[in-house]
Design a protein that fits this description.
D-Maltodextrin-Binding Protein, domain 2; alpha+beta; 19 strands; 7-stranded mixed sheet; 456 residues
């Protein structure tokens, strides 16, 4: 992840008018630099960041404006949303993407500093909250959130993952301020702390929980979808930029829509592109961004997400990170509506795809040069997926199954498996499996090897 403060400063010297369209003479026309802040490793923002950049759609749509300007895009990669907000309120970033809680801080800081911003589209979302997960070490004896009382937990305060942790602890009857020892750490630092054993659990957003679990460095303790509270990532733009360069913002949103269509039509190829750019395993990217992944991608600003954003304000206020936030004035879908036309209403009404089990077979070289098939196989049930895996044990790149109660997709070999008569049921976390067993006499937890044997 590369910041470019020197380049940004140089750009400001060359183009002193403003970051959103500072121009310098360039022959017959002028050069306009558009600065986009994104988070390459926060992979639910890829349609406004990593994937969009790799596809070149924004540059293409800018060139199609034919308004006498020559456009250049300065892509700036950050680890979290906080520095993007800082750069936006300083007038150095025009468009940024980040999670729901950072978006609220973005709105609050912008208003406070007289540099208002606007939420103009959505990238990836999960209506139940499955984008955030609490994980523990693979050999941890912790099995539920109540076990976290008095323990050290790493999270990034002010992030969506922290919001999930706060709400989940409150539901478990634990004071999120006094009941645990919370460490405010960047995701990579928290991941290292968990691996080193200096914290008992890690609450983080994509793709950290899936990555650590895939690597065998963590296991799920709590599935954020248990909250049944929407989580999402979105695109924010400076209000002055939007007003001064509406055609540029609309070009961005059109390009984002095109990248979304590409991801939905070519989910494996998209995962490979993102993996190549981020050095994340494609199997982890696909867990979140795949055809039946944890995230749904759609630029339309759905009412359920706006309602969730309003409820999130109280969590940030309690943490003294913001005061009141006028969400209604922050949300501004006029530019997306103009960019997408009649398609906006269609997207607004669209519903997430039903959860399904998938297997990614090994095969010919994939789009990014890695050894994988460019197509996955979908199955009607987890048992059918396991049956296929059992028959092709050496030919499987990854297998994914949805939690039997929340629908959150997880790696089949990392799930908690329950047998209930002839049924095989996967769960992301021990607590959800335990809850199912308590309500279904005769159901019991079995190992993944036993689940494969039963499926075969």
């Amino acid at each position: 992840m590369k910041h470019k403060p020197v380049a940004a400063a140089a750009a400001l010297l060359l183009f002193p008018l403003s970051a959103c369209g500072g121009s310098a003479s360039a022959g017959d026309g002028s050069v306009v630099t558009v600065t986009v802040g994104y988070q390459s490793k926060t992979i639910n923002t890829v349609t406004a960041g990593t994937l969009l950049r790799s596809l070149g759609y924004f540059e293409k749509d800018l060139n199609a404006l034919h308004d006498g300007h020559t456009y250049k895009v300065d892509w700036q990669d950050y680890a979290t949303g906080a520095p993007i907000t800082a750069q936006m309120t300083a007038g150095k970033i025009d468009i940024g993407s980040m999670g729901d809680f950072p978006l609220l801080i973005n709105a609050a800081r912008g208003k406070q500093l007289g540099k208002p911003t606007r939420l103009v589209s959505i990238t990836g979302y999960n209506l139940r909250g499955g984008l955030n997960t609490v994980v523990t070490a693979p050999d941890s004896t912790l099995t539920s959130l109540t076990d976290l009382k008095g323990k050290k937990v790493s999270t990034s305060i002010g992030s969506a993952a922290d919001g999930t942790l706060v709400r989940a602890l409150q539901e478990a009857g634990i004071d999120p301020d006094k009941g645990i020892e919370k460490l405010n750490q960047q995701p990579a630092v928290g991941a290292s702390a968990l691996v080193a054993g200096s914290v008992d659990a890690l609450s983080q957003f994509v793709a950290w929980p899936g990555l650590l679990t895939y690597q065998g460095k963590a296991k799920a303790l709590y599935d954020g979808a248990q909250l049944n509270h929407p989580t999402f990532h979105g695109v924010t733009a400076r209000q002055d930029f939007a007003e001064q360069r509406p055609a540029v913002l609309e070009a961005f949103l059109k390009a984002q829509s095109e990248a979304t269509d590409y991801l939905n039509a070519h989910p494996v190829a998209a995962a490979e592109k993102v993996a190549k750019a981020t050095e994340l395993p494609a199997e982890v990217v696909y867990l979140y961004n795949g055809a039946h992944g944890i995230a749904t991608f759609d630029p339309a600003i759905k009412p359920q997400l706006v309602a969730a954003l309003k409820e999130d304000v109280s969590v940030l206020k309690a943490a003294k990170l913001t005061g009141d936030v006028d969400v209604d004035s922050f949300v501004d879908d006029q530019y997306a509506k103009k960019a997408l036309g009649a398609d906006y209403a269609t997207r607004l009404a669209a519903k997430p795809a039903a959860a399904a089990s998938e297997v990614w077979p090994k095969g010919s070289t994939g789009a990014a040069g890695s050894a994988g098939s460019e197509k996955t196989l979908a199955f009607k049930s987890p048992a059918e997926a396991l049956s296929y895996v059992a028959r092709h044990r050496n030919g499987i790149r990854a297998a994914y199954v949805p939690d039997a109660t929340t629908g959150t997709l997880w790696f089949a070999d990392k799930a908690v498996w329950v047998t209930d008569g002839e049924e095989l049921l996967p769960f992301v976390a021990p607590a959800t499996a335990k809850a199912y067993i308590a309500a279904h006499g005769g159901a019991r937890v079995i190992t993944y090897a036993d689940a494969l044997e039963q499926a075969s």
